[in-house]
């Protein structure tokens, strides 16, 4: 058992020296490459604390833009107890270094070769990007969404922009595109987005200790029946509690249970008369318009947030989420018929209750018409697509060169004959929007 032990002992010091000098050797801390120190707010001292890579990786403190887009350099530890846990990280952006933690996110994107990430900065630090998304400032947490299943690279941004433009009173989400490097290696084009949490609520002047629920599956349908049509054991099925006390137990879900019971049990007359006391009516009507307009099949029950401040007289607000499945494709990239105007009343009982009442449907259809003729006119939305495509073009082609082969060979859509490259997908998206808008205009006459 001890044969050769003396030889190993004699070469071990040399191996350790070689390993310390090679960036490919993972330090005992779990970092796959030595990260920046990030020991203070003075970026100059941080630059001096970072040793340049010898393998051609860009200097994160000076390489701040690529193809006209901002660059985020993420350094993350390779040690992780489980797929849902956070690992230590460093984020370098515009020459500033942040102490952070990061984790992979998204049930679907966990299976992608290019996965989405959540980055949370340490207490006392905030992320600032003044030049994009109308100012993406003061964020402690950000989402890096992988567009691996959207090779137009712009659907999520377009959907959130449509929501934001529908009304200045909406709880809006900001999003912009950036190039991401992970541990010094090119990771590609990502959509940087708000993270809906306590800080987000505070930024909007809302009660940061109110009840925030995330709808995580189709059972979050405001019905006493689940998505399969079976009686629910608890009305809360389909929701996770994200903010508010208590965090667990029956009392934690009391407010969303009560809203579900109202929607499920109210008579038509009671629903019409009292819904404004339970929910922000504009939010929930506009949710249906967005779902119908952009055909967001994967976000009509799940992939949504519902918030209610503490105290009497407060109403639920709606916040959209996860809108990459939109504008002509489902979550698995399957093509969607632009002329299919399915209203999603089976999936969401709020939608059904609104659309069954002519007193609600009449004004709702009128608002829909006004949006299509004004703020969301076909030419406006096509102009947004064209602007995003110009902005993203060079970065999208580079990302496509990196990930295109794995995209085409991905098991969920391998063998399909209708997959496009970037230019082809943008052309498909434009044609889909043009056809969809014409179909909607005709249906709303």
Structural commentary:
The chain is α+β, with helices and mostly antiparallel strands. Among the domains are: 36-146 and 172-194, no CATH class; 206-380, no CATH class. It contains 11 helices and 14 strands. It has a 7-stranded mixed β-barrel. The longest helix has 31 residues, at 378-408. It is globular, with a radius of gyration of 24 Å. The termini are far apart. Mean pLDDT is 90; it is low at 1-28 and 41-49.
Tell me what portion of residues adopts beta-strand conformation.
15-25%
Q: Count of helical segments?
A: 11
Largest sheet, spatial ordering of strands: 2-3-4-5-8-10-9
Count of DSSP strands: 14
Helix content: 25-40%
Report the C-alpha radius of gyration, rounded: 24 Å
Describe the secondary structure blueprint for this structure.
Layout: H1 5-21, H2 43-48, E1 65-66, E2 69-76, E3 87-93, E4 96-105, E5 116-121, E6 127-129, E7 136-139, E8 141-145, H3 155-166, E9 175-182, E10 185-194, H4 198-203, E11 211-215, E12 239-243, H5 254-265, H6 268-278, H7 281-294, E13 304-308, E14 317-320, H8 349-355, H9 358-373, H10 378-408, H11 422-443
Parallel strand pairs: 2-9
Antiparallel strand pairs: 1-2, 2-3, 3-4, 4-5, 5-8, 6-7, 8-10, 9-10, 11-12, 11-13, 13-14
């Amino acid at each position: 058992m001890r044969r050769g032990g003396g030889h190993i002992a004699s070469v071990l010091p040399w191996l350790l020296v070689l390993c310390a000098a090679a960036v490919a050797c993972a330090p005992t801390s779990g970092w796959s490459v030595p990260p920046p120190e990030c020991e203070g707010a003075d970026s100059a001292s941080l630059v001096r604390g970072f040793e340049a890579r010898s393998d051609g990786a860009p200097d994160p403190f000076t390489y701040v833009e690529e193809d006209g887009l901002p660059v985020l350099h993420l350094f993350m530890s390779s040690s992780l107890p489980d797929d849902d846990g956070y690992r230590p990280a460093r984020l370098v952006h515009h020459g500033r270094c942040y102490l952070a933690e990061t984790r992979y996110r998204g049930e679907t994107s966990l299976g992608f070769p290019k996965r989405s990430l959540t980055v949370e900065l340490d207490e006392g630090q905030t992320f600032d990007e003044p030049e994009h998304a109308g100012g993406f400032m003061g964020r402690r947490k950000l989402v890096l969404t992988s567009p691996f299943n959207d090779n137009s690279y712009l659907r999520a941004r377009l959907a959130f922009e449509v929501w934001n433009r529908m009304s200045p009173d909406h709880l809006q989400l900001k999003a912009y595109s950036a190039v991401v490097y992970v541990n010094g290696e090119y990771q590609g084009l990502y959509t940087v987005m708000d993270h809906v949490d306590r800080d987000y609520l505070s930024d909007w002047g809302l009660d940061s200790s109110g009840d925030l629920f995330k709808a995580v599956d189709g059972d979050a349908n405001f019905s006493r029946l689940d998505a399969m049509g079976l009686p629910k054991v608890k009305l809360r099925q389909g929701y996770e509690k994200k903010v508010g006390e208590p965090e667990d137990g029956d009392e934690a879900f009391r407010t969303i249970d009560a809203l579900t019971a109202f929607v499920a049990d109210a008579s038509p007359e009671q629903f019409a008369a009292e819904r404004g006391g339970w929910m922000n009516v504009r939010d929930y009507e506009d949710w249906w318009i967005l779902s119908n307009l952009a055909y967001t099949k994967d976000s009509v029950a799940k992939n949504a947030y519902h918030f209610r401040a503490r105290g009497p007289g407060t109403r639920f607000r709606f916040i959209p989420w996860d809108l990459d499945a939109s504008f002509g494709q489902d979550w698995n990239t399957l093509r969607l018929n632009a002329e299919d105007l399915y209203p999603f009343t089976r999936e969401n009982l709020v939608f059904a209750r609104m659309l069954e009442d002519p007193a609600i449907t009449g004004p709702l259809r009128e608002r829909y018409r006004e949006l299509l003729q004004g703020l969301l006119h076909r030419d406006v939305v096509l102009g947004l697509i064209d602007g995003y495509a110009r902005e993203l073009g060079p970065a999208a082609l580079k990302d496509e060169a990196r990930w295109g082969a794995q995209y085409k060979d991905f098991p969920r859509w391998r063998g399909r004959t209708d997959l496009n490259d970037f230019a082809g997908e943008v052309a498909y998206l434009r044609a889909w929007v043009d056809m969809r808008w014409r179909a909607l205009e005709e249906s709303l006459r």
